[in-house]
Amino acid sequence: MPLAVALADDNLIVRAGVAQILATEPDMAVVASCGDLRSLVEAIEQERPDVVVTDIWMPPTTGDEGIRLAALLREKYPGMGLVVLSNHTEPAYAFGLLKSGAEGRAYLLKEHVNDGAQLVAAIKIVADGGSMLDSKIVEPLIAAKVRIERSPLADLTARERDVLAEIAKGKSNAAIADALVLSKRAVEKHINSIFLKLNLSSAEDVSKRVKATLLFLAETESLANDHATPAASFLDR
């Protein structure tokens, strides 16, 4: 039985080109060709392909549709492979793709796909639960990982980072509890742990929150400059 593949790209010529490549593969069949996220999701629900090949930017927002799709597939169809075929080298997109795990995921740059064999290989790899990353993406990912590990926030858990992000928004403990669906007592415990790990336990109460916020914003700005904002979530896993 051939591998069922769904294609998505807002560029008709790209979709047609990929479909033409796959048409030469006897063990693959294109079951859908879509130009936006909504039609792709509908096709996935109807056709249940083995692998989805998609760009990152697509209508309706031309933002991070491909990355949001990765999260959706991991939740609803965990065995479905995903190949992101993109022009974008920013580590943020790769982090977003791999946030829920690397199994069944590939990230290829269109400029480096010189022949159909590489794309076909990626589709087969993710269909078997493997992963593939373009070499141009790997180096920025490693650099971002090293930067995170050297950060004062490196010892914080994912939940503590969530709490700190809410502190940085100026929220009270009660508001943080509501936003994160936690008890006030749980929020207080997380905040105490944050202050301890950031060596702020001896500071004045208001000063603790301000200093913790400044550390958080400094890291966020640094990562944003490298287009790697989602790094922490992925690296904490």
Structure notes:
With 237 residues, the protein is an alpha/beta fold. It has 2 domains: 3-144, Response regulator (Rossmann fold, 3-Layer(aba) Sandwich); 151-235, Orthogonal Bundle (Arc Repressor Mutant, subunit A). Helix content is 54%, strand content 13%. The protein is built from 11 helices and 6 strands. It has helices at residues 12-23, 37-47, 65-76, 91-98, 116-127, 135-149, 158-168, 173-180, 184-197, 205-225, 231-235; strands spanning 3-8, 28-34, 51-54, 81-86, 105-109, 131-133. A 6-stranded parallel β-sheet has the order 2-1-3-4-5-6, sandwiched between helices. Helix 7 crosses helix 10 and helix 8 (173-180) crosses helix 9 (184-197). It is elongated and about 70 Å long. The relative contact order is 0.11. The model is unreliable at 226-237 (pLDDT under 50).
